[in-house]
């Protein structure tokens, strides 16, 4: 038998502990420039409705 005694946790407490563990990562601060900036947007094909001869 191991010397350490782990406290009995309910299913809800177990899930909460898991959620708290996973919360840490990610970006710390929001970037100043918007992501959908004109320079970063993908330029699609130019479609013309009229016929060019």
TrEMBL record:
Region described as Disordered:
1-53
| Highest rank taxon of the organism | Bacteria
Start-end of Basic and acidic residues biased regions = 1-39
The protein's name is 30S ribosomal protein S9
Which source organism? Latilactobacillus graminis DSM 20719
Q: What is the lineage of its organism?
A: Bacteria, Bacillati, Bacillota, Bacilli, Lactobacillales
């Amino acid at each position: 038998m191991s010397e350490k005694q782990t406290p009995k946790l309910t299913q809800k407490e177990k899930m909460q502990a898991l959620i708290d563990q996973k919360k840490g990562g990610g970006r710390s601060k929001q970037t100043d420039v918007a992501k959908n900036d004109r320079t970063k947007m993908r330029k699609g094909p130019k479609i013309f409705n009229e016929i060019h001869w």
